[in-house]
Amino acid sequence: MRIWDGPAAVTGDDRSIKATDCNPWIGKAPPVGRTGSQKTCLYRHQPVSRGQGKAYKFRAINWASRIDEQTRKAFSGVEIRWAFTSKMIRAKLAKEGMMLDSPETAMARLMNDGFTHVAVLSLHTIPGEEFHELNQNAQLFGQMAGGFEKILVARPLLSSAKDMETVAGTLMKNIPGRKPEDAVLFMGHGTGHHPADAIYLAMNQVFQEIDPRTFVGTVEGKLTIETLLPKLKQLKAKKVYLVPMMSVAGDHAKNDMAGDEPESWKSVLTRNGYQCESILRGTADYPEIVEVWLDHLRTVLAHF
Question: Which residues are catalytic, by number?
Answer without folding.
Answer: 189
